[in-house]
Design brief:
895 residues; mainly beta; seven-stranded mixed sheet; 51 strands; 4% helix; globular; disordered N terminus
Length: 895
């Protein structure tokens, strides 16, 4: 049979050659998506020109291949189209050819992608607003989770303390999996727990619009990361489990399950550890769990806020991995579902419960520089936190028709935190107990109607109820004098309640055509806040309520009625945009504070893109109304010695902000970088009136008649050296500040601050047997204060370095050594050094399935880590105890 086919083809071409005529043309090739996956049932057809009829056509099979014959013409246009993808057109020249191979790559239509640029090393593919990284090209077997893989991508930064991820200086909003959002703002749950080897592609999507009916109409500057998984991980349940046992009762155990099916995506995270792993409970209890509604996205005057005021012993921001200072017992169970029972309906559910028993040991040394005196305060703190958080998120989204979309969201949070602090302050011993309870729920209903290709309408209703309650008791061995009274006390107790109810209604009309995008919006916000606090003192078992100035019984009602227009247009190759809104607000309280006024909030900006150069700038005027705590009359005890008081002067805060950003390069270039300037001036509002003594730190608010200025300059430069297989990153930053306050009855004090830093790191580029990661951060802080007849400076300098080595001895055996060195010097004091080292060894028993690892942490048993800060009235040195040396043996199983 093969012989007959051969002779048939031979004589066919022989006859064509003899005749010298071309009657038909063979067209064949493939149609694939952005990730080189085949697109089945795509239409491929030829035309003579844009307006002519179709001359021939074909369709792809399940492997994305097509083949058909066409009448011979010298010039043709080949077109490929498929449902859900952008149509692609190619000019082809058929002269002197018998057959032509044409390969099409179609972009997903929902992202409105532009031209495709494919780099030679195939590590990144850029599609206008979307960059796709091939994860395998950035893996070197040293990454233990998704977070460590993302940190290796060019232009991507991961904060080692918080886990926040940014791309070219801008924080991402979410991490999606195959286009679905399973974790919302709490994406650290995924980045810290998901194994890195299951990821196939990583997309960084700019100008992301979550509402699919508004894509192409709505202007957005949001960035998200979208993950696609390897094909062998889809349509089956997979995951990983870890059992870790060490000395000194250290343990680290986890089970993570993933399932991605046609109609169901599910993720479950489970973890229990006593090895200092970052507390999820602590992270969730201190952050806003709600997604922004359409109304809240508009401008800051509409934001709902209800935050805790009392805090016991926050851990300072460190220059090393905060895992090293956490004496913990942390447990987490978090389950996430996205279900599509039918094509037009999507159901989402998230259930999270987490708790912790976290202890920290912090010694603080303060030196206060006052008007006519200097005093020192030494603290030795043992702080224990016991947060427990329960979160539930439910969401239903239904396509009412091809044009209409309805979405309902429900969020619930119950956060309970018991905190204790035992403090030795100079010669006084203080024991404090704080209970914080937050019970919150929110409901939001969004309706979207796509009128046509150029217009859409959205409507939003949302209601939030947030109850925040805190109870503090503090006992002291030595009695202290309560400020503004003649009372001695050895015990203080405070109860604080802050319920908030928040309702919004919002409408928006969007229009887009060619390069023009317009959004007209209107709505109203109604907010009711109550603020109740009572502070009592006790001396020798005799309790006494403090005067009215220490109590608060405050009701605050606010209404905002607003209207605005957002316009984006391209002119002379420059994208121009503006947002001009205004409204009328009414504020009422149970005191004499009642105010109403009109306001306007303009924003203008531009963006220019020339090849690899992008220039972006904005100017914004912000108008922010005070919250209940800002206008309350009484004092609030926020720690065992910190007291704040709101101001009965009702002064809205106004600010002017200018942003200029320059970005160069594509993500897969050997060089890329960005430069950013943010300049802000706050006018009116409040300034702090400070009163500091050895027993209490008191901050009240007075009217601000001076501008407060802040300028932040930051940059990032990355260079890849292919000959040496490493990537160099340099990140300088400089923050300049200027503000005013008063201190212990002084005249107005003007303070100028300078905080500079430069961060340099070198990471080897994915060698097979050896890799390294080296970096250093140098910081300098200076504060200069001027009064009528006095001026002085405070300053500190520090340098922190790390050097990590990754060794791969064989396919089964690898190791890692992590070293950290820190130096700081404050004022004229002697400099201090710190050194910290960890080591890890991994052995793969069954490749990609079973492995065992041994880690030795804090090899040299360093006892403490020291940091320092300065401001206009004090210098501070923090000494944080580190976990003692311990070894941890882990068995890792993947399935």
């Amino acid at each position: 049979m093969e012989r007959y086919i051969f002779f048939f083809i031979f004589f066919f071409f022989l006859s064509k050659t003899i005749s010298g005529q071309k009657e038909v043309l063979k067209i064949f090739g493939t149609v694939v998506d952005s990730f080189n996956g085949p697109i089945a049932f795509a239409n491929v057809y030829l035309k003579l020109n844009d307006t002519s009829a179709i001359t021939s056509y074909g369709m792809t099979d399940e492997k994305g291949n097509f083949s058909f014959q066409s009448p011979f013409f010298k010039k043709n246009i080949a077109i490929a189209s498929a449902l859900g993808y952008e149509t692609r057109t190619k000019q082809i020249d058929t002269e002197d050819k018998e057959s032509i191979k044409i390969n099409f790559r179609l972009s997903n239509k929902i992202f409105t992608l532009k031209e495709t640029v494919i780099k030679a090393n195939n590590r990144a593919i850029e599609h206008g607003d979307t960059v796709t990284f091939n994860a395998d090209k950035y893996r070197d077997s040293t990454e233990r989770n998704l977070e460590e893989l993302l940190a290796k991508l060019p232009g991507v930064e991961v904060d080692k303390n918080t886990g926040n991820i940014s791309v070219q200086g801008q924080s991402i909003k979410k991490i999606l999996i195959e286009g679905d959002d399973l974790t919302g703002r709490n994406y650290q749950l995924m980045s810290k727990n998901m194994a890195a080897d299951v990821v196939d592609k990583i997309q960084v999507i700019d100008k992301f619009v979550e509402n699919k009916k508004l894509r192409g109409l709505k202007r957005s500057e949001d960035k998200v990361i979208n993950l696609t998984l390897k094909e062998n991980r889809k349509k089956l349940l997979f995951g990983n489990a870890k059992i870790g046992i060490g000395n000194d009762e250290r343990t680290d155990n986890s089970v993570n399950l993933f399932g991605f099916y046609k109609k169901l995506k599910t993720i479950t995270f489970g973890n229990f550890n006593t090895s200092g792993v970052n507390s999820t409970a602590e992270m969730l209890s201190g952050s806003d769990f709600k997604d922004d509604t359409e109304a809240e996205n508009l401008h800051s005057i509409l934001k709902s806020r209800n935050y805790s005021l009392i805090n016991l012993g926050a851990i300072p921001n460190l220059g090393l991995n905060t895992q090293s200072v956490r004496f913990n017992r942390s447990a987490l169970l978090s389950t996430h579902f996205v279900i599509r029972p039918i094509e037009t309906l999507s159901l989402k559910a998230v259930f999270t419960i987490t708790n912790d028993r976290l202890r920290s040991y912090i010694d603080n040394q303060y030196k206060y520089l006052l008007k006519d005196s200097v005093f020192n305060l030494n603290e030795s703190n043992i702080i224990q936190r016991k947060p427990t958080v329960i979160e539930i998120h439910l969401e239903a989204q239904i396509d009412l028709s091809s044009k209409a979309l309805l979405r309902y969201k429900f969020d619930f949070r119950n956060s309970i935190a018991d905190n204790t602090a035992n403090t030795l302050t100079n010669t006084n011993t203080v024991s404090s107990l704080l209970d914080t309870h937050t019970l919150s729920f929110s409901n939001a209903l969004d309706f979207t109607y796509r009128i046509n290709d150029n217009q859409a309408f959205t409507g939003n209703l949302s209601y939030i109820n947030d109850n925040n309650q805190q109870n503090l008791s503090s006992m002291q061995v030595q009695p202290i004098l309560i400020p503004f009274t003649n009372l001695l006390s050895n015990a203080l107790s405070q109860s604080l309640k802050k319920p908030l109810a928040y309702f919004t209604v919002n409408g928006q009309w969007l229009y887009a055509k060619n390069t023009l995008k317009v959004s007209d919006y209107f709505g109203a916000v109604f907010k009711n806040e109550n603020f109740n606090s009572s502070l009592s003192a006790q001396f020798q078992n005799l309790a006494e309520t403090l005067p009215d100035s220490f109590q608060n019984n405050f009701t605050y009602k606010q209404a905002n009625y607003y209207i605005g227009v957002n316009i984006k247009e391209e002119w002379q190759g420059i994208q121009w945009f503006s947002d001009v809104s205004g409204g009328y607000y009414i504020v009422k309280s149970n005191t004499s504070i009642n105010k109403d006024n009109f306001y306007a909030v303009p924003v203008i900006g531009f963006k220019k893109v020339i090849n690899k150069h992008t220039l972006f700038g904005t100017y914004a005027y912000n108008y922010s109304l005070p919250q209940s705590i800002d206008v309350a009359n009484g004092f609030i005890l926020t720690d065992y010695r910190y007291i704040i008081r709101g101001s009965s002067i009702f002064i809205p805060s106004n600010s002017y902000t200018e942003i200029l950003n320059y970005t160069y390069g594509n993500f897969d270039d050997e060089f890329l970088g960005h430069f950013n300037i943010i300049h802000s001036i706050n006018a009116q509002g409040y300034i702090s009136n400070l009163d500091i003594n050895p027993f209490f730190y008191i901050s009240s608010k007075t009217k601000n008649i001076f501008p407060t200025k802040t300028t932040n300059i930051s940059a990032s430069f990355e260079r890849y050296f292919p000959k040496f297989y490493f990537r160099l990153k340099v990140r300088p930053s400089l923050t300049l500040g200027n503000y005013y306050n008063t201190l212990n009855g002084s005249n107005i004090r003007e303070t100028s601050t300078t905080n500079g830093a430069v961060d340099i790191s070198i990471r080897s580029a994915y060698l097979k047997w050896f890799n390294f990661h080296f970096g250093t951060t140098i910081t300098q802080s200076n504060s200069r204060t001027f009064t009528e007849n006095l001026s002085y400076n405070t300053n500190s300098n520090s340098a922190g370095s790390f050097l990590d080595f990754y060794l791969k001895f064989s396919d089964k055996f690898s190791g890692r050594i992590a070293n950290e060195l820190f130096y700081f010097k404050q004022q004229s004091n002697l400099g201090q050094n710190y050194f910290f080292a960890n080591a890890y060894i991994d052995y793969n028993i069954i490749r990609s399935s079973l492995s065992v690892s041994l880690s030795i942490n804090n090899i040299f048993n360093t006892n403490a880590f020291i940091t320092s800060t300065v401001n206009d009235y004090s210098t501070q040195i923090n000494k944080i105890r580190l976990l003692p040396r311990y070894a941890l043996l882990e068995i890792n199983f993947r399935f």
